[in-house]
Structure to design on (259 residues):
């Protein structure tokens, strides 16, 4: 049983390191996937085993290093120093896990109304230009980062140069995920934030241009997140879409499409 302290330290350190490694893998997947559920899954296939392996290894090393530290020194060495290190380990590891968990939560949330409103004020002229373009290019109903609808916009007399200009303006206005519109260009959504994938529910938040006031209207959309809106909005008529007027024919929008 002479090695019992070392075994115990290795088990405790390895367990804590494994948890840190797995949470770190989820954080990396959230940060690198662009809120695409399918992409996050593929990233986790590789990141989770790697995080588990590295975290466990680092935890075992740390546990044994901590044991050596506590067993070292002279009788004259202040016990307060060892106590401070023990508290640092006991509090630091859970704090690190909590911080990474909070980071994952924030990455999964849409931008706040305040952030979107500030961005809209800065780039109002850009969105006005985009709206005029969409209304001119009738039949162009979608431009995303790497695809359009129709898939061959040249057939409706929209050139590749024109599509590149759309993407330049959309990026400039922080709506990189493009726009969707009706055939006449009278109702246009600019996608500032998109989460989900083709095999899961998709959530969108951004700006909506419409000549007809949409419903339901709310004073804010901050209680609508990755997994839906609050019960208050359901009671007020929310059924997957919510809007906030911001002036003229412009609105903030939140939309959740079930997969």
């Amino acid at each position: 049983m002479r090695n019992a302290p070392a075994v115990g330290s290795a088990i405790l350190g390895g367990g804590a390191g494994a948890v840190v490694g797995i949470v770190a893998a989820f954080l990396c997947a959230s940060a690198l996937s662009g809120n695409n559920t399918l992409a996050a899954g593929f990233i986790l296939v590789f990141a989770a085993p790697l995080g588990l392996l590295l975290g466990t290894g680092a935890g075992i090393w740390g546990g044994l290093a901590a044991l050596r530290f506590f067993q070292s020194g002279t009788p004259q060495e202040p016990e307060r120093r060892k106590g401070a290190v023990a508290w640092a380990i006991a509090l630091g590891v859970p704090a690190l896990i909590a911080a990474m968990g909070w980071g994952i939560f924030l990455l999964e949330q849409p931008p706040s109304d305040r952030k979107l409103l500030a961005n809209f004020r800065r780039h109002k002229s850009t969105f006005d230009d985009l709206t005029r373009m969409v209304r001119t290019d009738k039949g162009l109903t979608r431009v995303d980062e790497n695809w359009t609808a129709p898939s061959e916009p040249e057939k409706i007399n929209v050139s590749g140069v024109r599509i590149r200009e759309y993407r330049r303006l959309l990026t400039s206005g922080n709506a990189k995920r493009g726009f969707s519109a009706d055939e006449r260009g009278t109702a246009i959504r600019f996608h500032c934030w998109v989460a989900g994938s083709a095999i899961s529910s998709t959530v969108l938040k951004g700006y909506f241009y419409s000549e007809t006031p949409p419903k339901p209207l709310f004073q804010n959309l901050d209680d609508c997140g990755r997994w839906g809106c609050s019960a208050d909005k359901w009671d007020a008529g929310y059924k997957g879409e919510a809007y906030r007027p911001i002036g003229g024919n412009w609105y903030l929008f939140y939309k959740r499409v079930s997969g």
Q: What stands out?
A: Residues 4-107 form one domain. The mean pLDDT is 87. The radius of gyration is 26 Å.
